[in-house]
Amino acid sequence: MKHPIRYRLEYGLALIVSGLMRSIPLRPGRWCGAALGQVAFSIFRLRRRVTLENLRTAFPELTGRRELVRLGARCYRHLGKNVVEICHFPRLNRERLARVVDIRGLEHLHEALAAGHGAILLSGHFGGWDWIGPAFALNGFAIDLFARSQKNPFFDDLLVRHRTWLGANIILTSGTPRAILRSLRQNRLLAILADQDGGRKGIFIPFMGRPASTAPGVARIAIHTGAPILLGFMVRLPNDRHRLVIEPPIEVDRGGDTEEVLRQILEIYTRRLEEQIRAHPHQWFWPHRRWKTRPAGERRDR
Question: Which of 13, 61, 83, 238 could serve as a FRET partner for 159 with CA atoms 20 to 30 Å apart?
């Protein structure tokens, strides 16, 4: 299958950047990543318009454009740091991981897995979300990451290699549900970032003051398998360490009406994600068109 030359050029550039960033110690590397993020926002303006529109929707109290631009730039600097950190994954071991990531609430996960139905960790594209895979893999957990493939197959292959370097496994969203069911039957941890647009099959849940289509698949699977759902968000701290706090399993009456149970689970998840975003507004992935799908009768976002 032939691929556009642009894909090969992007892949070549990604290889060069990855190699360069990995050759630099992590701390100065983060400074480079922040600078690249600022360039992407201010000069190349990659998805800048979408980012600013999303911020305006989520924070109507920020009436001045300067405030929105300042927050948008801060978001891109944070994302630049994330990219550099991913480049360093092949150099990680458990000792190095402990210097960067602090996991709290592991007792909740151990208790959840003790039931033998696997466990679902619901998180979002927030903070240092890519640390979730290596953090659990290096701590001895069998973990599957539920992820979308990238349009560029070469870049997607590079990203998968970095994400799975330390033992995490990838389950593609484009695959069949069998892989998810198999993961939970094997009593593995399934990590899902459930904060992207859910399309027409999603359930509209209030998010940052506006209805957002949210994919219900993970909640359906949990109800079907009996797998507990835990929430956890990887927050970047001021010193560039990351802290993941695992919360106790979501408690809902799973014997009730299925659609109502689905909504309850998604509302709890969305509310907790929103709390994290309001506490650390620059750490969410604002370039994503989260409100793309609109309720019937409402104009679709461009």
Answer: 238
Q: Is 236 helix (H, G, I), strand (E, B) or coil?
A: strand
Instruction: Return the pLDDT at 87.
Output: 93
Query: Residue 2: pLDDT band by 50, 70, 90 thresholds?
Result: low
For residue 82, the number of C-alpha atoms closer than 13 Å in the C-beta half-sphere is 24
Sheet holding 119-123, edge to edge: 101-104, 242-246, 229-236, 119-123, 189-193, 143-147, 169-172
What lies within 8 Å, CB to CB, of 131 at 6+ separation is 85, 100, 101, 234, 242, 244
pTM here is 0.95
Contact at 8 Å (CB) between 276 and 235? yes
232 contacts: CB under 8 Å, gap ≥ 6: 105, 121, 122, 123, 132, 244, 245, 246, 247
What's the one-letter identity of residue 121?
Answer: L
16 token code pair: 């060069």
Measured CA to CA, the distance from residue 34 to residue 45 in angstroms comes to 15
Task: Give the C-alpha separation, 24 to 158, whole Å.
Answer: 19
DSSP letters for 142-200: -EEEEEPPPSSHHHHHHHHHHHHTTS-EEEETTS-THHHHHHHHTT-EEEEE--SB-GG
Q: Report the C-alpha gap between 47 and 32 in whole angstroms.
A: 20
* Tokens 């650390």 found at: 280
Rounded to an integer, what distance in angstroms lies between the CA atom of residue 192 and that of residue 217? 11
99-118 residue pLDDT tens: 999 999 999 999 999 999 99
Distance of alpha carbon 142 from the chain centroid: 19
